[in-house]
Each structure stands twice: as C-alpha cells, then as structure tokens.
Amino acid sequence: MKDYYKILQVASDASPEVIQMAYKALAKKYHPDLNPGQEEAMQEKMKDLNEAYEILSDKDKRWQYNQSFYQNEESSHYSESEPPRNSWTESSYRAQAETASQGSKTTSGKGCARTGCGCLTVLIVIFMLMCVVGSFSLTKENKSASASEVSTAASMNDQPESRTEETMPISNETKASSEIQNGPTYNSVDPPDSTDSRQEILVEATGSNAMLTLWTYRDGQWVEDMSTTAAIGSNGLTTNKTEGDHMTPEGTFPIYFAFSTKVKNTKIAFETISEDSVWVCDPESIYYNTLQSKNNPDKDWANKGGAENMYPKFSKGSSNACICFGFNGDGWSPYGAVAYGGSALFIDGVGENGKMNSGYGDIKISGADMTKLLSYLDSDYNPTITIRATQ
After folding, report:
1. For residue 91, what pLDDT is reported?
2. Alpha helices, DSSP H, located in the chain
3. pLDDT in tens, 62-71
4. DSSP assignment, residue 378?
C-alpha cells in the first residue's frame, strides 16, 4: 500500500494547508514540462502526487486511508516479528516421534489394557444414569406442560368476547391498509449512473473515440434525448488528470455553465465571451482553471502562457459553444482548482473551422449537436456528466 504521506513528504498529522503547500511545491518540481528529457519519469511522479493529494486533501478519504494504512502496517509488523506457529522443522518432527516412541514403551502391556477396560465400564455406567435422569425430567416437563395448557384453556373461556377480538392476528386487509399508508416497498428505477442528478450526459470511450448520450429522468423513467459520436483526449481516459497529459478525466462531474460569444438556447447558466475573456492556465495562480477578464485588477497569472484568450476560439469558428464541467473546480471561483490538475477542458461544440480530433482532452462533438444538447440541458434537473470506458 502506497505511503501518501511519504510521497508528499509531510507528517501523518499534517494540516490540510501544509498538505496543499507540499503538493504545490512538489508538483512544480516534478512537472514534466519543467524537466525536459525526463517526461516519462516525471509523469509517474505526478501521478503519485495527484493520487496522494486527492486522498489526503479530502477529510473522509483521508480517514478511510489512515484506517486501512495503519491496519496494514500492524499486520506487516506482526507477520515480521512472529514466525508462523506451524513452522516445524525436520528435527522437530524427529523429536516428536522419539517422544511418542518412548511413551509407548512405558505405557504398553497388560496393565494398560486393564486400565482401559475399567475406564470403559465407568463410562457406560455414567451414560446409563444420565439416560434415566433425562427420561424422568422429560416426563415431568410433559406433565407440567399439559397442566399449563388446561389452565390456559379454562382461563380463555372465562374471558369476555371483546378480549378475544383484541388478541386476534392481523388480517390480510389490515396488512394491505398498512402498506398503502407507509408506501409499497419496491426498487426504484436506477439512472444510467449512480448520481443525484435527473439529467446526465454519458460519455463512453474506447481509445480516443466516444459516444455521447443525454439521458433525462421524466415520468418515472430515464429517457434518451440524443446520442452522437464524440472525440476525447488522444491518450484516452485517466482518473489522475495532470496538466498537458492529453487525457480526458474519468468520473462523474457537475455541469456548471455554457459559454460562447453569442447567447444560446439553454436553461443552464451561460457566460457571454468578450474580447477580454481569458481562461487561466497558470497552475500557480489562484484563478487557475477559471474564466476571467484579462483586465482583472487582482490578476496574478503569468503574462506569457498563463491564460488562453477565449474570444478568437469563437470569432474564428473553431468552436460554436462550450460547456464547463467540474473535473477541477467550478470554472468561476478562485482557489477552487487543484494546481496542475488540468485546465481549459470542456465539452466543445466544434465550429466550421475547428478540428474534431485535436486531442488535448476536451470532449468534442459537432456544433449542430452542441446546439441540440444545450437546448435539452436544464439546471433544474441538476445535470451531470459521467465519463467512463465503454462497458
């Protein structure tokens, strides 16, 4: 079992703040882009770092990990400090055989036979006595039970009729009435994936190709609203997303908002992109993986490569519209994303001049399908997206 505290180089009682600081420092140290020639090794280190941070930064996950880790440690210590109880050697078996042989010499012969016969006789006598006593007790109990039954019957005959009605068993009609009042017990219809959502975008991928299906819970059942082909990251799916790995995050995430230069027909939150709109990609910024204005007075991201200008994405026809989903923060709030946990990945409706297979990690569908998808999405249904391998 991995020692996540050792990976992050913190004590087991480290506070969440210390864990976050350690993660940021190590992520910067081991980031593949900052270690040319060691990309493969650094990606492995980043994978461990992300895994450790994901567990230790979450209170419930950390508690479960601590329980499992320390139980594992105790088990390992026990197995190392104590040899197996049945670890007999050849000499042990030889010594046991010799002892048995010597014992048989001292207790064999007619004396032993006489002792055995005497013991057998005593056992037979004890057994016969137990049978006699048991038979007597059983007879006595039967007589007592019979007397009790007679007494009970007489007592019941003396009771008024109303008392008899109170002690009658519950009828079938009463049971049916109880079920109607408390509600029937039955298994409810399960959604495509286990979430609290009543609207789910399901993306099932094989390699970098995928199928995107929208399900909505209506009138007591899940209904398929639309289905279309999609493309994901060129390196497939991952549960440990890192910046620049060309992979699409796997899991179930909330749908937060859509955005474009032109307002779209949708019932989810919408952000209109202007010429000063940027998406922050600088992992050191508090605004990492959020939509911001480049004129933000509190701007802290790098001038070069710290943010992606969003306006040309739509004005030049690369995208029709995009949807932000919460794989790493909500796309709005500072301090909301994990540093180096991935940024600027969306459900992307490809425009007339866009590419379906750019492979950075976005989920790409056609612009026409994006328009259709947005028309169905409704924040009242608490929409989510589930991304997984084809099953």
Report:
1. 43
2. 4-8, 16-30, 39-56, 59-81, 90-107, 110-158, 161-166, 172-182, 311-315, 367-376
3. 988 998 877 7
4. B
Domain residue spans of the chain: 4-78, 199-389
Task: Please say if the pLDDT value at position 106 is more than 50.
Answer: no
Please name the residues in contact with 312: beta carbons below 8 A apart, sequence gap of 6 or more: 318
Distance of alpha carbon 11 from alpha carbon 56, whole angstroms: 11
User: What is the C-alpha to C-alpha distance for residues 261 and 243, in angstroms, rounded to an integer?
Assistant: 26
- Provide the CATH number for the domain formed by 4-78 in this structure: 1.10.287.110
Residue 111 has pLDDT above 70, yes or no: no
Q: Phi first, then psi: what are they for 299, rounded to 5°?
A: -50, 130
Between CA 342 and CA 252 the distance in angstroms is 16
Where residue 182 falls among pLDDT bands split at 50, 70, 90? very low
Three-state SS at 171: coil
Q: What is the pLDDT of residue 40?
A: 78
Distance CA 366, CA 348 (A): 8
Of the chain, the percentage scoring pLDDT greater than 90 comes to 49
Domain 199-389 CATH class label: mainly beta
Strand partners, 223: 216
320 SS3 class: strand
Specify whether the backbone of 41 is left (phi greater than 0), alpha (psi in -120 to 50) or beta. Answer: alpha
Residue 126: pLDDT band with limits 50, 70, 90: low
Q: Which residue has the tokens 């670890």?
A: 87
Q: How many residues does the chain have?
A: 391
Q: Which residues lie closer than 8 Å to 299 by C-beta, 6 or more apart?
A: 287, 292
Q: Kindly calculate the radius of gyration of the chain based on its CA atoms and give it in whole angstroms.
A: 37
- Shared fold status for 4-78 and 199-389: no
69 in Cβ contact with 1 (< 8 Å) = yes
The total of other beta-carbon atoms located within 10 Å of residue 39's CB is 13
* CB neighbour list of residue 38: distance below 8 Å, 6 or more residues apart: 32
Task: Pinpoint the alpha helices (H) of 279-345.
Answer: 311-315
Cα separations (Å) of 326 from 4, 289, 351, 379, 385?
25, 10, 23, 14, 9
Question: Looking at residues 49-74, what average pLDDT do you find?
Answer: 82
Q: Model's pTM, two decimal places?
A: 0.55
